[in-house]
Amino acid sequence: MTRALLSVSDKNGLVPFAQKLVELGYELVSTGGTHKVLEAAGLNVIAIDDVTDFPEMLDGRVKTLHPRVHAGLLARRDLPEHMATLAEFNITPIDMVVVNLYPFKETIQKSGVTEAEAIENIDIGGPSMLRSAAKNFASVLPIVDPTDYDVVIEKLQTNQVDQVFRKSLAAKVFQHTAAYDALIADYLTVSEFPKNLTLPYEKFDDMRYGENPHQKAAAYTTALSESYSVLNADILHGKQLSYNNIRDADAALRIIAEFEETTVVTVKHMNPAGIGQGENLEEAWDKAFAADDISIFGGIVALNRQVDAVTAEKMHGIFLEIIIAPSFTPEAFEILSAKKNLRLLTLPFTNTISQNLEVTSVLGGVVIQERDLMGESEANFEVVSKAQPTAQQLRAMIFAQKVVKHVKSNAIVVARDGQTLGVGAGQPNRIDSVVYAIQKAVNKTGFSEAVLASDAFFPMDDSVAYAADHDIKAIVEPGGSIKDKDSIAKADELGVVLVFSGTRHFKH
User: Fold this and answer.
1) Which UniProt keywords are given for this protein, alphabetically ordered (predicted)?
2) Mean per-residue pLDDT over the chain, rounded
């Protein structure tokens, strides 16, 4: 007689699975609520306390933590001394463990849940049984995922339960219990940067490929779902998101979260191509498109208002990969969904992103940091030039600073109030970024109102000189260089407004 121990929180599919186990000759042992469900289904089930000769106690905190359970799981069938020990103590081997764990994640996601309630939903016996069974997978089948019930039955019925399959189930157990413990650790941890970093992620999807076709890739979500995430967006139309789509869309969502005003953000290769604001969405789109009508080709568009038909018609005429918005009017959806490969996504937009830490992989490890959450305010600005900024220039500086923090360093943004005009990103020296951004901006409508923002200080006065020579009349940069006085002197010489923001916004 082979024996299976079943103790599950998620009872979906449990009874049909148990019935088939009985048909295959398994003797069933169970605990608590699982025992009641199986017994109510007319199955013969041995109660766990009949196995342990000990009652469940402490409100169910202790029921399977017993040598008669764990010896039955851990005994090696190929070692005579192990089997002799079982016989000596009249312990029956357990050949299968079917366990899924207390719903800790679901509990802590409930509104108003207390710490005491969360702690009571930390499973102890379940992980212990799973780990014992998984360690002894050569003899014990450990089953943690209800979606595996059918394949387990099929393999048992056809005698195809080999060591490869057993090992795969064991690996799934340790992945599951590790993620479960990581979530508990995260919930209890008060240190922002603990000694041991545990990051529970759950697979979202396998990608067709990564950045390039020869690279394999997959996407994972955080264990506690974030509604403001491209991975949790509703795909209303279009095919599966690619690796690059996800990265670009994430960048667009980070950028547009900076703005409460009606805003359109276009993104290419994780950098903003153009950003526009307006009294309505059409005006915001017109400004974003005019900001860079070349780079937007094949790009991503994020809009923080419902997409209307007028704006949809304008976007329809351009090749775009993804449009993300809170919603689409029926007319707008009909217009845009006519394009087979255009992906239309919706999610609830917000100006507050709850995920405050960022993790980046490096060879041999990760680095982790707080997100750049520093806001922009005139109160933090220091006017260091003789020339004084106008109110319009100050508004443009605030806008440009919100953008520059999302541009790869060395980052320069030329903008007027509510519209980017030129972006210089990722150049190995700052003056090249200045040159590129101004060249992109100089012939655009509104350039006469432009200010220039830099993510970091100017190491010398050449950037100020170039900007002034090309009719930039106001500059905002963090300050902090040992040669700040040279930039200030150059600004005064050329009559340029120079403002120090006091905040660096490097983005590597």
Assistant:
1) Hydrolase, Multifunctional enzyme, Purine biosynthesis, Transferase
2) 91
